[in-house]
What does this fold into?
Amino acid sequence: MVRKRRYELPLDDGSPTDAEVPSVFPVLDKRTKKHLKEVALSLLYAISVMTVAYLQRNWLSFYQREVVEQLVYSRRSSTVKPFSYIKTSSSFWTWSETHLMDALYDDGNENSLQSHSFYLVQRAKLRQERVAHDVPCTIPNDVPLSTLGYCKEPFLSHNKDWDDYGIGWSPRNDTGRNVTDPGLLAWTHRTTEDLREYSFHGDHGVYHGGGYQVELTKNRTDSLGILRSLRTNDWIDEKTRAVFVQLTLYNPNSNLLTSVLLSVEFSVIGAAFPSHEVLIFPPYFGFSDLPVSFLSSEIILLALSGYFVYVEGWRMYKMSFRYFKHFWHILDAIIIAQAFGSFGVFFFTQYVADIIHHQMDAVDEEGAWGSFVNYRRVAIWSQTYTYMLGILISMVTVKLLHVLGSMINGVTLLSATMSEAAGPLSGFSVIFFISLAAFAQMVFLVVGNNLFTYSTFVGTLQEMLNWMLGDFDYDNVTSVSRALGPIIVFTFNISFQ
It folds into this structure.
């Protein structure tokens, strides 16, 4: 017989038993637990994507780009205008011999790149692409040839010049051989593979790389002599269609690399059109040099992406073709594909960077044939990786709002409102964009030949959106056409405001 303890209460005193004590937390059913798990995973996935994206973009990138543009592209003096004002080959050579030299070489010049902690990773180079000399010129029969003299051909892949020349574009008999004479390097054609170039999409053509390349030296006097020799021997002539100036800079204070590409396109009408490209990207020196926080976020994101592949794969297997009838299932599949595409671009960027670092190690210290190693490839792939992360963030945010919609009434109300208004808004959007395109076409035809911002139809569409915000230059538009200009502006305002 078990002895009863004194402090033990009898069972018939009215106190509740363990089975009768109500739980503080509500009992969740299986469906609610599954939904909460989906919300937690979606939130963690969104945080991981945002962390990777924000760690990828250095906050100093914008300021570094601004400084480089001021020192190289926008710098002006009392006698020489900036790069953006180049209109002829003569003005290009004047800019190269003054502002470019001041930026590249620190000879007590406070406006040099080095005085602002920007160091050349390698020597700067000039490259040009040109049309062949034997391209026939088509002239209408009713136009006398004596009034034209000659005409220029636009730059296309089929009329690109691939020949080797002597100094001053004179004929040369030793074409195809390995040139060792430094004086002939600027007149010898190099392929895209030789120069490791990427294509450049300009305003007047697409330049796929290759061409005729000149590398400057570490000494200002020698580089200035090279530029003056090229100018004297007409390195830029009537067959030149584009000239590029390329720099690769490193700032140890921000630990960022900068790829600078300055281009001057010489169109068939004889005018020059300058443009520039400044790409800021982190130095991909290897996985061991990447920040721990960045690597940790990448690993978490990769693990979560792998888990979602399993979940969506199983769901696709169970639902078969019915899986693709649901918008949110399709969005999940696109998010997974975008995530792994981003991983692929990231690893490929590391691979390209590794190749370029090996090429840098192989280049002789004093420079050699084709010694310029093009970091622009890494910059473009790094920029592509950032863009893909931006697209991924937008899709993950939409998915997160959908998942939270069943828990938060405000989000549910927003989703229901958008679903209800989708039909009427679609019809309104079609009419709106047709009307906007009609006005843009009219403005493009009326003032496109006189104002640069309206010189293309896409640029005109962008200006139409600015007009809707009240940002338009009434004086310039009406100065082109004093009759139609005011009518266009007035009609647009009463129609879209």
User: Anything to note?
Assistant: Residues 11-15, 364-370 have pLDDT under 50 and may be disordered. The first strand starts at residue 119 and ends at 120. The first helix runs from residue 30 to 56.
